[in-house]
Amino acid sequence: MMKRLFNRFKQHRLGLIGGFILAVLIFLVTFAGLFSPYNYGTQHRQFPYAPPMLGRIHLWDDEKHEVQPFVYGLERIRNPFTMSWIYREDKSKRYPIHLFVHGDEYRLLGIFKTDIHLFGTGTSPDSPGQLFLLGSDKLGRDLLARILVGGRISLAIGPLVVLVCLVGGGLIGGLSGYYGGLIDTAVQRAIEVVMSIPRLALLLALSTALPPNLPPLARFWGIVVILTLVGWAPLARVIRGEFLRYREEEFVLSARAVGAGTGRVMLRHILPNTLSYLIISATLTIPGLIILESVLSFFNFGIQEPLVSWGMLLQDAQSVFQLQFHPWLLLPGGFIIIVVLAFNFLGDALRDALDPHLVLVQGVK
Amino acid sequence: MWAYTLRRILYMIPVLFLVSIVAFGVIKLEPGDFLTKFELSYPQEMLQEMRAHYGLDASLPVQYWRWIKGIITKLDFGYSFATRQPALSALFSGGRLIWTLVITGTTMLASWLLALPLGIYSATHRYSPGDYFFNLLGFLGLSIPNFILALLLLWLLVVVLQVGPHWGLGVGGLFDTAYVTAPWSWAKFKDLIWHLWPAVLVIGASNMAAISRYMRGQLLDVLSQPYIQTARAKGLHERKVIYKHGVRNAIAPLVSMLGFWLPYMFEGALVAAVVLQLPIVEQSYWQALLQEDQYVAMSGLLFFSFILMLGNLLADLLLLWADPRIRLE
Q1: Is the CB of B285 inside 8 Å of chain A's CB atoms?
Q2: What is the helix (H) or strand (E) element at residue A78, kind and residue range?
Q3: CA A40 remoteness from chain centre
Q4: Residue from B24, B267, B287, B291 to probe the interface with A (highest A Cβ count within 10 Å)
Q5: Strand locations in chain B (E)
Q6: Where would a tag sit more exposed on chain B, N or C end, judged by fewer CB atoms within 10 A?
Q7: The pTM is what?
Q8: What is the pLDDT of residues A228-263, one digit of tens each?
Q9: Residue B169 φ/ψ, nearest 5 degrees
Q10: CA separation for the pair B170, B146 (Å, rounded)
């Protein structure tokens, strides 16, 4: 059974690509400290808004005639015509890029204290030889490091919220569909009320209820809670429908006839039948939740310093001025798009693999 | 049909009542009230007096009762402390209600007018380069969150096309400063269009993509039916086959997209209102949230769900009208 599923999943090329992209991103953000030359909070006050240096890595050392990637020193000068700050390569100084350099200290996986970074120039924070692959922000913090660390929250929050929604919505929707009657009516009305308020408006209103002086981690969990409050209703409705469908099926009736208790019937007999449908719905709900969190943080109602998420990083790119002079601040948006696409591909592939006859009338978002 | 409509409208009343409780509760969850930020700069007695005057010192059920009573008896949605006028006027001030209608209406119209031909083209030219291109575009339209689309559009206009504020603004607001107070003229209208299209794109992109993809699928389904083959076999002109027999049958289920799309339109409009600074109702809601202007925020939530329900009802009625196969039980 599993093998057949996997084979069918493998045929969906876009789904494989989506799954692969997500796997790579999860790996990268898990070891964020390792894959970026700096820590996400390290400030390089001399180098605010340094443009991305991805295209400024020189590969060939023509003095020693060997392959040795290096960058030139950064020099911050005033543009003589506009008086704005610009960066220039100081060709007199070269800073080779090494593998496994010592740099900022961090905890790998939150446990092992280390200062090894996969690549970097290994220079001190005020040396001109910095390597900002994707540029730096207003305080001279490395955007690559911030994107990787921000990805932890952006990637985690969708599945996390869906899980809570599935458990909570499953309980509510399952009981409602199974028992029917008064409980069902009450649950139906509740779902209707939640779904008749626009999600984003409700989400913004709920987020103002979070106290402003909340510790960062508590704020994160607060946001998980409010996203759940906004997102449980559609899933509960799906689950209710499924339980309602199976309630009168013969295998359920016969299970009840031989004396199985309510809990057993629901968990052992009905739930496994609805599982594939639930997994598909959950996967297709994730991108929407990721977008909601991003919008919330982008509007400064969500994740706040010192925590980082992609939406929060985009706050810096909000003004026309920033877009004009520091367009690389838009890069976190690219990551959001890629992750949303990947989850959509994955959801489509799962749908095709789990149930080829199933047609869900559900938005991609 | 009339009985059905009436029943649906009557049914909206209890739901709206429940929504009002949720809206009131959610907004009042917010720690403090509008006067909290003056705690340090004004004497306590004065604030107490003001709270008593505006009824902010009463218990929550009492406050809710006063609010809902005001709404039912005299359409009084509370008081906007930040702008010092009734909450409803604050929500709709500066022609915001009309602009909301204009912008969402334009978006709706533009997305259907653009998306339908694209879908028809894709279906009739299946697997052609054009079809692949529009498919790709559609997938992007569905996957790019609208706030990022807004940022990308700003970037495109300002940095790539260089039509930003220093070159005669095409972004933000609805008019250039020179036209804001000017009377209507051809130039002002052109200026409006120039400011409107980014907003329309931000609000409508995902809808456009969804409609054209759905239209493609529907039309392909219909075109593979035997009666289309019969029509072709009888020697009917291909144009007539597609438009009279194909499109007409494919379009009816699409109407259900209308109701499905409404919640997304709100999200798009809210995002566009904030990023592109559009003077629409969503913007006053946003400002009310920022300024802890509680009654405006509550009324906003209530207004949004009212519109949402009304829109869903209209979409269902339209579906009934467009597809005679659907029967009411």
Answers
A1: yes
A2: strand A66-78
A3: 17
A4: B267
A5: 79-80, 85-86
A6: C
A7: 0.86
A8: 988 888 888 888 888 888 888 888 888 888 888 888
A9: -5, 125
A10: 18
